[in-house]
Amino acid sequence: xxxDKNENLxxxxxxxxxxxxAIGGAIGTGLFLAMGDSLSSAGPGGALAAYGLIGVMVYxxxxxxxxxxxxxxxxxxxxxxxxxxxxxxxxxxxxxxxxYYCATTVAAEMVASAIIMKFWFPHSNPLIxxxxxxxxxxxxxxxxVKAYGESEFWFASIKVVAIxxxxxxxxxxxxxxxxxxxxxxxxxxxxDAPFVGGVSSIVAIFMIAGFSFQGTELIGVTAGESExxxxxxxxxxxxxFWRIMLFYIGTxxxxxxLIPYTDPNLLKTGVGDIxxxxxxxxxxxxxxxxxxxxxxxxxxxxxxxxxNSSLYASSRLLYAMSVEGKAPKIFAKITKSGVPITALCxxxxxxxxxxxxxxxxxxxxxxxxxxxxxxxxxISWMWISCCHLRFRKAMRYQGKNLNELKxxxxxxxxxxxxxxxxxxxxxxxxxxxxxxxxxxxxxxIILSYIxxxxxxxxxxxxxxxxxxxxxTLNEVDLSIGLAKNGDKN
Length: 489
Known about the structure:
Elements: H1 15-26, H2 29-32, H3 34-71, H4 78-85, H5 88-117, H6 126-143, H7 145-174, H8 186-189, H9 198-204, H10 206-213, H11 218-222, H12 229-258, H13 264-267, H14 278-286, H15 291-323, H16 341-356, H17 362-397, H18 414-429, H19 433-436, H20 442-449, H21 451-466, H22 484-487
Helix pairs in contact: 1-7, 1-12, 1-15, 3-9, 3-10, 3-12, 3-17, 3-18, 4-5, 4-17, 5-6, 5-15, 5-16, 5-17, 5-21, 6-7, 6-15, 6-16, 7-12, 7-15, 10-17, 15-16, 17-18
């Protein structure tokens, strides 16, 4: 079990905090900015199919994580599960992979915030805004877990309210109460709609859809710091997924009715141009004043919310790995209020290096960071599902009663097997066109797949140095809490 010192990391997050942390981490630029690209690439039907399929896959990932986190609520979550259920080397690789995912996501959001601020200050230096916002997020995470939870609650609340208002206004426009006559199904059958480009286009936007949902797994990361995890984690898993699915699926349907996939604004997928936001296009069609500035402010709050969630998660994972001996011991230091201060500082420094490396080309570095983060996220999802399969198999082998589980994932084992299969398809096929082109796009291949060899290298380096072995089912550690070596730190 955790020591008294490490108990400072526990019991600080309220149930409402946990739900909003997951919502805040999952609803960001993927909804407000990338949705237009998805619609223009695959049409309303294709986008709906892609987001729906990835959403179902994410549901099974969340139920798998929810079952394990309810049984074993520990800081670090799936990094710890991989260590206990498979191999310490896998835990090491998965922990650093997810830390890398979260940290690069923070960097991407900081670059996005600078691009968004250019709407109001077109000639300003992007480094000023990147620096200002990373300082803000650092301070929100430094004070205490409660301060972080409250800030994220309000950050996420802003965009939830904005989406609800958008959905209400959109429905009223569809049926003709606002903005003139009812639009009917015209935009769903226009041109090649609803499925533009067929199956290949749907597969092509899987990565965008997946990145849009990434952040839901933060429920597992926050498990070690939640009140009454046996009750609150299952509740959060159930409510968060359906809220996120409602927001994404509802948004796709509304935009699909109101904006044709051929709209030239949707095709101009420039990150820095607020006009590409489908939200803005809908409100402009209604004729509401100042909609561009309003939506720009909402998108900015969304970016900061995602950055806030990711900075929290990455610092906690680095702390957990330090406690387990998979990172330098200095990162296990916590403040009196329970904040892993050295892990937070190190992660913030990495974020600063990331956005500084982009120089003046903030658009290109933003795209690269999103690609890197998206791939790392799918790798994490795949192994969460694998850990769940291994967890259940070990429980049966060791004679554990499944009735001991306070929360059971539905449709086991079909659910996690489906999630693993979808993750593999997305990871392998995210840029398959780079291999099949007349001239192989090596730059595109490296950009798209660099996370895979990095993950494999981390696994085998740790395995070689520490001489670890894959655990037999009898050796799988099903005790609740961190490993014993973590108690000594």
